[in-house]
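From the methods appendix. Each design record in this collection lists the tokenized structure first, followed by the designed amino acid sequence. Records were kept in a plain field format so they could be parsed without special tools. The example shown here is representative of the layout used throughout.

RECORD:
FOLD TOKENS (342 positions):
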């Protein structure tokens, strides 16, 4: 009787051990419980399962939910544990652009005891809570100018393909020229009268008047508004003073207009308007209607002040030219008198 009892006990004990060795569980955890908006974080998915079992992992798209985005899904790593089980691990790089508390949804993994087993079971991780904070902006500090583009040096490896193409094109052009050099072509040149050039100040004034008539500073399309008013000033500088302002950064424009003998206050307000436009275009700033109207006034004042300087310069040059011609006539008259006396 005692022998039968011990046999039954060890049989039950072996069955329990076998059941424990066949246990399957899954877990998910993050390396952070809070992040800043857009900051990547790591999500570790761990599955403990018998090594002979068949596993189907979830396929990830760009998102896990409307609040959680997938940046990268790592490879699945398998580590043996014990005699018959393995630990399978996968790391996901995630992020979120929502703010406040968001939730990482359940992630499911299906498995079966073999590939041929038609009965599949599914395990799911727990839903996790994550806090997403915003970047603190110190509104007491002054706006800082946007840095210009840093130009990188061109390497020989980058130049070589273009140089090769240029040589081939030049060779083809030379061959065509050589084959057709004996042929004479008569080119008829049309005597076209040059079109009169509209002064830059007239164009700028017309455009500024149109902005004022439409009260464009009240529009909700703030980015387009600042593109228009700063574009008027850039085009005026290029047309009136040959300053390539359209291709310049804000700091380069301000450095160029300092030579125009305009008041420091007008240049400072013009500079502030250009900086505001940069923040609207690149940092999605949203100035008030009053700030928009003030920016228009600053642009208009700058254009008019620059034109006053232009007129003064033209008068000065004309006066210098008259003086030069008068001096030449005086010298010429003195020479004629001297020759007559001789």
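DESIGN:
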């Amino acid at each position: 009787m005692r022998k039968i009892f011990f046999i039954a006990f060890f049989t039950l004990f072996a069955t329990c051990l076998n059941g424990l060795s066949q246990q399957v569980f899954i877990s998910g955890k993050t390396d952070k419980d809070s992040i800043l908006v857009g900051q990547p974080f790591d999500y570790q998915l761990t599955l403990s399962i018998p090594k002979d079992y068949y596993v189907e992992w979830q396929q990830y798209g760009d998102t896990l939910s409307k609040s959680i985005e997938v940046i990268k899904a790592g490879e699945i790593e398998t580590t043996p544990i014990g005699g018959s089980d393995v630990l399978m691990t996968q790391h996901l790089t995630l992020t979120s652009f929502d703010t406040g508390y968001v939730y990482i949804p359940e992630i499911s993994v299906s498995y079966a005891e073999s590939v041929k087993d038609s009965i599949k079971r599914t395990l799911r991780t727990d839903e996790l809570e994550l806090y997403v904070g915003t970047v603190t902006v110190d509104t007491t500090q002054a706006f800082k100018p946007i840095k210009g583009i840093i130009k990188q040096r061109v390497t020989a490896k980058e130049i070589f393909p273009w140089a090769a193409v240029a040589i081939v094109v030049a060779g083809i052009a030379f061959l065509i020229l050589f084959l057709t050099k004996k042929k004479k072509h008569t080119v008829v040149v049309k005597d076209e009268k040059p079109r009169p050039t509209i002064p830059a100040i007239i164009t700028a004034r017309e455009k500024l008047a149109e902005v004022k008539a439409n009260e464009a500073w009240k529009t909700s399309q703030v980015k387009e508004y600042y593109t228009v008013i700063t574009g008027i000033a850039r085009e005026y500088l290029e047309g009136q003073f040959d300053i390539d302002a359209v291709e310049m950064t804000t700091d380069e424009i301000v450095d160029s207009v300092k030579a125009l003998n305009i008041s420091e206050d007008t240049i400072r307000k013009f500079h502030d308007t250009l900086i505001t436009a940069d923040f609207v275009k690149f940092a999605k700033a949203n100035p008030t209607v009053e700030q928009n109207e003030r920016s228009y006034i600053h642009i208009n004042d700058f254009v008019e002040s620059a034109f006053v300087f232009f007129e003064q310069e033209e008068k000065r040059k004309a006066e210098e030219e008259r003086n030069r011609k008068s001096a030449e006539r005086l010298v010429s008259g003195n020479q004629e008198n001297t020759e007559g006396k001789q």
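APPENDIX NOTE: Helices lie at 2-21, 156-180, 200-214, 222-241, 250-257, 264-283, 289-341.
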